[in-house]
Amino acid sequence: xxxxxxxxxxxxxxxxxxxxxxxxxxxxxxxxxxxxxxxxxxxxxxxxxxxxxxxxxxxxxxxxxxxxxxxxxxxxxxxxxxxxxxxxxxxxxxxxxxxxxxxxxxxxxxxxxxxxxx
Length: 118
Fold this sequence. Notes:
Elements: H1 6-29, H2 36-39, H3 58-82, H4 89-112
Helix pairs in contact: 3-4
């Protein structure tokens, strides 16, 4: 039983080691000459005018979350579309239900006005 998980454990160790070695190497070869200009906050190369802690509208975040939801929909439907010829009627009904649930979410967001850009 544990032998079947050995590959996953080895893969996790190699992935973790690869990340640690890469970050360690970057830390070793980085330039180490800090000065006030390098340590200053970067704001597109311009000095900020006024209050820099401007609160953004929640509308932007809602729009981004809706985009992510429908992006994930495409990821879930892609394998289904690739294997469409081998799948039966049951898979077609499941995909239609999945799309209908997401369409219901889209209609709900539309009715609440989350898609209106202001």
